[in-house]
Amino acid sequence: MTDSATPLSTPLLAALAAQIGPVPRYTSYPTAPHFQTVDNDRAWRGWLGELPDDSAFNLYVHVPFCRQMCWYCGCHTQVVKNDDTLERFLQLLLREIELTLPYLPSRPRLTGLHFGGGTPSILGGDGLQRVAEKLYHHFTPEPGAEIAIELDPRRFDASLIPGLKALGINRTSLGVQSLDESVQAAINRRQPLDMVARTVGMLREAGITSLNLDLIYGLPRQTVENVVSTVQQSMMLNPDRVALFGYAHVPWMKAHQARIDTASLPDTAARFAQEAAAAQTLVENGFCRVGLDHFARPDDRLAQHAVNGELHRNFQGYTTAVGEVLLGFGPSAISTLPQGYAQNIPSVASWRQAVHNGDLPVARMRGLSQEDILRRAVIEELMCHLKVDLAEMAVRYGTAPGIFDADLPRLALLERHGVVQRDGYRVVIEEAGRPLVRQVCASFDSYLLKQTAGSVQPRHAAA
Question: What are the E-state strand segments in 118-264?
């Protein structure tokens, strides 16, 4: 390593990341590997029944199907060819919602709804409308509630518009990933710019104008040049937000990723260079940086929440949604309640059987201690706003700042190289150190730091 006078260059950031090693993405704390298997839904029903009548709900609906598998995909999804399978899934999804409703407040407020996958639009316009009718019969959308859906431009046509409008969709997220033909071939996702532009045009003509684009760096055959070219071409679509994700190569979890030639993957230094170049291009095009990997127009609500210190982070990434309750439906969906986390059964077949039997299909749960809640708040503050006052946080959650005394020395490497600046219990991540925000958060992750003799430690993708 170089001395503290060395500027925070891309090679130095890459070297620091390599020295620290893989860390979680921190969409929750404790992270998903620390959830615990449950044998039945009794505890989950109890948690739901304890929710106050005035709870504000965010809902997530997971549709775990695609027509074709993209080799890079890290989502819980599988290929389906038979429409009968989709109809059976839809019926059981509606039944899961029905099974859950008796345990909820009588008329809960809805502050956000997100459809993810997989490819949610695979249910078709009529299927989406049936889900909308079931949800809105019980949940009352608040004014300004964000109703969002992930769409695959390769599988979009006009027949979906009525279903999207019935849902009240006001934001769409399109997976672009890369517009380079060589990269697309390597990840099994051929999707030219004009196909994406056609989808955007149809959505805007229907009055659905708020647009997110998902881009990825670190894919096979990617270079700084073709990543920047993808960003520049994407600007022609005039998105409101862009998510710039790093590809997570985890073939031990996602077997289809083994189809990717690891020799064609950029190394850590190349990944950092790609991220830096893409981020610079987005900023030059008028976007504000939000958290680790999101970008938004200055007048977009996401950017405004970031400026005002009101940004949040959950399993869907950065969000403006308010409320302590995130309720997930569908296989693998993860819920967040004041008491902790719960994840549905990931296996479609097992989820289907549980719902058919009349059970809430929960597979794993994780209750939160007071220390968990405090550390979660610290990590979210860092992930969202790049700074935290540990003393103020400790007092807010009823403990002494000394709880962090053992964590602060772990920042020494990053502090020495100017990634973070620390004044007592106040920690600030420098703008140039933004790509290492997860590494900073890891210093406060008590589960990551525990080394139990003989235990198998969770594996994480490279930064």
Answer: 140-151, 171-177, 210-217, 241-246
